[in-house]
Amino acid sequence: MNDMKPSTPSGILAFAALVEILTGLALLIDARLVIAWLAGVLIADAGTLLGPFLGIALLALGLACWPERRQADSVTPAFRAMLMYSVMIALYLAYLGIGWQWAGPLLWPAVVLHAVVALLLLWTWRGSFHPKEDSR
Q1: What is the pLDDT of residues 29-60, one digit of tens each?
Q2: Residue 59: which of 10, 12, 23 has the closest Cα?
Q3: DSSP H or E stretch at residue 50
Q4: What is the mean pLDDT of residues 107-126?
Q5: What is the value of pTM for the model shown?
Q6: By the 8 A CB rule, do 17 and 62 touch?
């Protein structure tokens, strides 16, 4: 009997938030390098100026979505925001790789990472709608 239960929302949310915090910091440090490794393209001056904006936004998203202990087992607005972000960024990055054929060495690992995080968040969210059944 397979009795796998979804993880707590806070564990998966903390992982997703940490990934975005680290990505935001990397973009703040060197946006040109991060974008080159992700999309396989060099960015022009405007991209160099906008890269840190993206870094700040990802850092803010990660910090805003960091789970609080008092909400460790609930699906919060931050949880839903991270779910939406993970789904949308996985789709967009895949579109860049397939439609535009922009692919640096980190593009497909990033697509897979965000897709897996989105699936884990969905699985956890689905589990929050079904109370744990008593085993008799």
Answers
A1: 999 999 999 999 988 888 888 999 999 999 99
A2: 23
A3: helix 45-65
A4: 94
A5: 0.82
A6: yes
- pLDDT at residue 120 tops 50: yes
Place of tokens 């680290």: 22
18-35 as b/e: b if 16+ CB within 10 A: ebbbebbebbbeebeebb
Phi-psi region of 101 (alpha: psi -120 to 50; beta: other; left: phi over 0): left
The CB-side HSE value for 13 (13 A sphere, CA atoms) comes to 27
Is 26 in contact with 55 (CB distance < 8 Å)? yes
- For the record, the structure tokens of 7 come out as 């993880």
Residue 101 has pLDDT above 90, yes or no: no
Structure tokens at 73: 């087992």
